[in-house]
């Protein structure tokens, strides 16, 4: 019986750890400078928690922006809780790291994309892109930043 190193899942775990460390720092010290995040997540994930009207409006996935106003950021081993403003209505969310599809900080052209397994079976590591590349509204961003896109790290080259 041969054993293989599952580099794809190891990379996903490392990337989720990076997101956790970034969010822990933000929870402790706030968002530095122009940093802000676009986080796309699977709203149908069994551990995701969001208001019924949000899950009805975004039945597959949604992108939230963590920038000027957020409250109650609580970062745990498995995910994070945060209250965000939706049309002047604060709504609490819980987003498990496993539900995150993209994490982008356009202020420094950084982005991560998690490829979703079509089949959870470990013997079948095929992937598919399930998230279009996030497009940020950079209308109030300095001109030199507007012309640059965030770099997305894809794990396709590490998978069979």
How would you sum up this structure in a few lines?
By secondary structure, this protein is an alpha+beta fold. It has 3 helices and 10 strands, in the order H-E-H-E-E-E-E-E-E-E-E-H-E.
In words, what does this structure look like?
There is one protein chain. The chain contains three helices and ten strands. It is an alpha+beta fold and 160 residues long. It has a five-stranded mixed beta sheet with strand order 2-1-6-7-10, with no helix packed on it. A three-stranded antiparallel beta sheet has the order 3-4-5, with helices on one face. Strands 8-9 form a two-stranded antiparallel sheet. A hairpin with a 3-residue loop joins β3 and β4.
Key structural traits:
single chain; alpha+beta; five-stranded mixed sheet; 21% helix; 31% strand
* Average predicted local confidence, pLDDT: 79
β-strand amount: 25-35%
The backbone outline, from C-alpha atoms, is: globular
Uncertain stretches of 5 or more adjacent residues: 119-151
């Amino acid at each position: 019986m041969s054993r293989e190193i599952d580099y794809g899942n190891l990379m996903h775990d490392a990337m989720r750890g990076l997101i956790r460390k970034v969010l822990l720092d933000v929870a402790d010290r706030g968002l530095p400078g122009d940093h802000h995040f676009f986080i796309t997540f699977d709203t149908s994930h069994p551990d995701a928690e969001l208001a019924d009207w949000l899950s009805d409006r975004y039945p597959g996935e949604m992108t939230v922006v963590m920038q000027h106003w957020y409250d109650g950021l609580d970062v745990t081993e498995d995910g994070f809780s945060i209250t965000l403003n939706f049309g002047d209505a604060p709504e609490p969310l819980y987003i498990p790291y496993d539900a995150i599809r993209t994490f982008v900080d356009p202020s420094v052209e950084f982005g991560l994309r998690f490829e979703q397994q079509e089949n959870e079976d470990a013997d079948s590591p095929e992937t598919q892109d399930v998230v279009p590349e996030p497009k940020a509204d950079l209308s109030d961003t300095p001109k030199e930043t507007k012309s640059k896109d965030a770099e997305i790290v894809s794990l396709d080259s590490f998978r069979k």
